[in-house]
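agent> call fold_tool(seq_1)
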Amino acid sequence: MKILYIAELVGKAGIYALKKGLPALKETLRPDFVIVCANGATGGGGLGRNHAAYIRKLGADVITTGDCCFYKKDLVENIGKIPYVLRPYNLNPASPGSGERLFKAKDVKVAVAVLLGQNDSGRLNPSSPFAVFQPLLERLRKETPYVIVDFHAWASGEKRTFFAAAKGLCTAVIGSHNRVQTTDEQLLKGTAVICDAGRTGSAESVGGAETASRIREYLSGIPDWTREAWEKPEIQGVFIEADSSGRAVSIRRIKSLVDS
């Protein structure tokens, strides 16, 4: 099983990079399953319904979100009817949408789940990802050996601790949220892990935002994430291969500039 994970799309540059760069990656890597994190696709924070449909059309088998999952009202009102979009699993049970789902790839099932870290998770107040992981995993493993977790969290310490808890139990745990690709990818007893897969969008930016606006924030104390950067659009992510038992046998980082 070959799994391509596209790191968090940030703004228009992220969607543009996906549109221009994904076909070439598919031709080169021949993935069986494509996961796209789109937590910041619409305006740099959140995901709109129309963008979700467009990302799906561009080739995503499943779209993951994170702390910004409920930022756009049109997605909140429709997420329960969009099976390919996942919000974090460990939210209040009354939250709309689903945090895990089974998909088909190569005539076999693939399970994808999103878990949200508890360090600086905003207003969502998630339950412990550690507490919900084991019962969730047991249920999913009854359906398929291929289980991929998008672990959306700020703190690398929380991510590394979760990797240790998940070691050898699932196919992959892919860190997201920081929008900076780390170089710590490794295999832990058949579980592929990385602290952060990076971002898809402007390579010359601060988390996809215009650098000047981020500097102004530090000088003024007034946050402004609305100014998206366009310089050097790039796809980032990871490519994972797993054997028939669901154990990962390789993981490598993806960084691919696209024509602007």
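agent> call fold_tool(seq_2)
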Amino acid sequence: MTHDVIVALAVLGVAGQILGAGFMLVGALALVGIRAPLQALRSGVEGYELWLAFVVAAIATGGSLFFSEIAHFVPCELCWYQRICMYPLSITTLLAGLFDDPRVARYLLPLPVVGGGISVYHLLVENGVAGQSKTCQISAPGGCAVKWINEFGYVTIPTLALTAFALAFAFLLLAAFEPLATVGTDER
């Protein structure tokens, strides 16, 4: 059963990466002046941005708890720092969604940015590009370089975390800022 859940989480991660690639394409098109895809995306998720960020954060939080509490993977120091950034997102995005308060999204944006940065560094350590610290080596068996999972040849725990942080950032960004078409209009 544990392996089945790991594969399911990895599949969700790959789906999230595909969605993230789509977001990047839409953003790139908007930067070069092609705004129709961005407007379609915004209208498609309008009002649900915080809920989508909550779903991503809740799955990531549940996945990390599954890895440590059920699969018995010992979280390393970098995993804990990523959790510090993800766990509050699952609670605050739920509350923001319940109270329909997109203003809070602006204040939450630093969490996925910092968490994503830690995930990138963790990936570098995991793949031997950056060395791990002494505290990393004693924080878990094998330190921060251990690949507890390696699905599809590249999906590891920090890869899943980075995917979740990127998606949470994208949804929070959509929630935080009004579409350009409505900025400056007088709504009375």
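agent> summarizing second result for user.
Confidence is low (pLDDT under 50) at residues 183-188. The chain has one domain: 2-176.
agent> awaiting next instruction.
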